[in-house]
Amino acid sequence: MIEVAIEMEGIRYVYPDGYVALDGVNLRIMKQERVAIMGPNGAGKTTLLMLINGLFKPSKGHVNVLGMPVEGSNLREVRMKVGLAFQDPDDQLFCPTLWEDITFGPLNMSLPEEEITRRAKEALKAVGLEGYEEKPPHHLSVGEKKKAAIAAVLTMKPEILILDEPTANLDPGSRAELIELLNNLHKTQGITLIVATHDVNFVPMLMDRVYVLNKGHVIAEGSVRAIFSNFKLMKEANLEPPVIARPFSLLNEQDGTDFTESLPFTIEEALHEIRRLMKRVGLRNNSLSTCNSER
Amino acid sequence: MGLLKAFEDAVYTEKFTAVNGMLQGIDPRVKFCIFLAFIVVAVAAKTVTSLIIMFVVVTVFTVASKIPLRYFFLRATFFIPIFAAVIVLPLPFITPGTTLTMIGYNGNFIFITKEGVYKALQFAFKIWICVASLTLLVLTTRFTTLIHAMERFKIPRVFVMMTAVTYRFIFLFINETCRILLAREARKVGKEQRIQVMKSLAYIIGTLFIRAYERGERVYLAMTARAYAGETRSLGKMRCGARDWVFGVTSVLICLTVLLIEFLHLGSV
pTM surpassing 0.80? Predict the structure, then answer.
């Protein structure tokens, strides 16, 4: 059974100073989908996320989350179902210790104490921050803070997890850990994932679908493959295709090979393509692994 | 900048809270009350005898809590000038009494009196005991626990929350200020004129204010996103055991003794 998780219709949002952040935005995200919201700086990505959680009220149009209109008495329920992790974890971690921060959400939900403790321990384990309970947030590294901010949201057991620029400012190791964590969450809990990002290398590893935002409008929507193969569109939105796709697209242009059909966007896809190519030129399929083992 | 970092270190000291000393094991509520009582008694005390008793008690507590005395005395004394200087400095000059010496020029003299110096020293000592009591409380109690103790005493939620949030973000703004100062330093060429320094300082203060304001907005949004509706809650219970009672009763007895000395004029002035 497929259900709609988030639906936005004709959304317009004007900031108090008159700046139109979003105009005529329509969006539909299904349950358990993993959707990336992409676009240049100032495209309105963060504003869009704030609207889903009901932190901002649209100037025009309406937002539905899990069948509930995001307004008035529904807000509490919506915020319990939608977990939003802010871009700057320092905005989110405001308690003297990590433990208090991650229990803040469930405490507001008036859950019983044992349940809160259980959830908090689970969340810390999920993000790999066990033993950090009593640490003050200002003694954590940026990567740890990001994880902590996600843990603080996970304790609320949201059905929809929204992350604003989760990979920004992360070192490659922390980034890889984050990707694994999000993949796990999706696999084990079937969480709906919405991520605002311009990390083009991160998107194909994790996401199903992409919305491209520019100057407050949705300029394109489609599968990761469809969007990323459209170089003209990518350029228009100040984005670039993933690094791994570049040599293959150049091969296409210069040598006229027929990669276009399946331009690789991840390491695995690239490996697959290389193997296919090698097979075509007559190299055995396992010669690559032989090379590896000799080294 | 070094000053800012030093301030951070001074505010943030939790390394002794984990030590297995006497005060560390006492219920924070009891500690909170007792040290408050100490301060009241120290302020009320007029005789040196009482103050010396208080001094000995605070010192004994410090040793029993396994806090290095040197460190403790330095910390407790460090803040004295800030609190006491304005009041203490004029005292030797304005108190009437036996003249010790006089400072003057061209026939205009001001006199330093024996009673004045004595009064100034006594006052500084008094302040020292108050600050030392607070220092001891802060050194042996984790800030969070202190916040919880405040909550249990039904101190208004808003006030408790503000204290907690201030504590959390003070470090963030110290770091932010350091970054701004560094960025300024990086673009500075040669020696600046004083007026320029003043000007850029004004910009920095302005920028900090705006950043603080915007940060506040975002923090509030982040709290709202986690179902915050204007009410803070907290986990965990506190238990008051035999040890706490022994400590509490002993401390109260000390306070009463000091007050009795004061009341019966037993101490030396």
Answer: no
